[in-house]
Amino acid sequence: MKALPNDIVLRPRFNVQTRQPKSTVQRIFDTAQKSPFLMKRLDDHIFIRFSKEHTTFWSPQLHLELTDFEEGKTKIHGVYGPNPVLWTFFMFLHFGVATCFVILGIWAYSKHSLGHDITLLIVGMVLLVVVWIALYLFGRLGKAKGKGQMEQLHQFFNECLRSVNKGQEL
User: Fold this and answer.
1) Where do the TM regions start and end (predicted)?
2) What is the arrangement of strands in the sheet containing 61-70, beginning at the earlier edge strand?
3) What domain range includes position 106?
4) What pLDDT does residue 168 have?
């Protein structure tokens, strides 16, 4: 498996195929408890995160989805990201900024059509763009701060994957 890319993506994703049936892969991950990681499996979804004493505001988690694509073969889709509550709040802020930008744009267009001054509305739109850029940079900062833990998750996943490919328990 390749190393994690360091591009513009805030939530890196990957796909891996293994020659083991899904039940074997699930069993390997179910028994792969190792400090400081906590594992939780819900049907075909596996969540790997850090224990409370190792968790910070920026701590990432790994979400794996297992799918059968041929008899006896499993595809693993993985996504590294922050705590889902934090990610949802972060996306809510982005959506709020975008909604305010559109509203100010419509308002500015209407006022401009009527011949009124729109300076404050344009300043507000520029400030919203600055806020959006700040949110993006905040997300990049969080990714950078959580990179060490993301690499730990990646190493642990690779250990589990080697066990899966050997067909052995950890």
Assistant:
1) 85-106, 118-138
2) 13-18, 73-81, 61-70, 45-50, 37-42
3) 86-143
4) 47
